[in-house]
């Protein structure tokens, strides 16, 4: 099975991405998760929707653990994700692209760990996103001529409500650049499962109080599609690099051993 997986937003359509695509059910400890397996530039990968239920699901109700469990059991070692985010700063304008390197987690009332009560480890999250996989993503963006910020801190909040003006000011003062609902939880689960993880973040709106516009998710469909198309090009470039170089992402990478199980 593939070493590389994409966990995508609703805008990532596997049927448009992959050659020789086939739908599969990846087993988990308790059930299975729907995904698509195929090739891109001759490199095999799995594309999994973050929400595979076929209906809208609020961020706190997504089965993050099942997604990462399914990928881990399938032998995946590298996970790439999209994050469609709001900005916390005028210096990160609408349309910006970032390769995240840090997050601040304010989520609550959701799955928060990959581990069970009787099998767990203390994950090192100093560098939550794999530096090697991030470097591959940055080089891919540069090859395509994309202007992507090589770093960014995402504040992860519960949703589904939007933030107040005061919260946006506070999050920016804490060092956040952008804000979203799902990425931090994905990242934690991947690290605890021992997989390399990197995220392409696309800014689709200004945070509350940074403009005079109402916060309305229906206004963001086109920016989401545009960022999803850019992400596809980046993944395409990355698969060429990984195919030609071999999976050297893992050289000197500590992601797989960052959460040793307590004994």
UniProtKB/TrEMBL annotation:
<keyword id="KW-0328">Glycosyltransferase</keyword>
<keyword id="KW-0808">Transferase</keyword>
<dbReference type="InterPro" id="IPR035994">
    <property type="entry name" value="Nucleoside_phosphorylase_sf"/>
</dbReference>
<dbReference type="InterPro" id="IPR010044">
    <property type="entry name" value="MTAP"/>
</dbReference>
<dbReference type="InterPro" id="IPR000845">
    <property type="entry name" value="Nucleoside_phosphorylase_d"/>
</dbReference>
<feature type="domain" description="Nucleoside phosphorylase">
    <location>
        <begin position="22"/>
        <end position="237"/>
    </location>
</feature>
<dbReference type="Pfam" id="PF01048">
    <property type="entry name" value="PNP_UDP_1"/>
</dbReference>
<protein>
    <submittedName>
        <fullName>MTAP family purine nucleoside phosphorylase</fullName>
    </submittedName>
</protein>
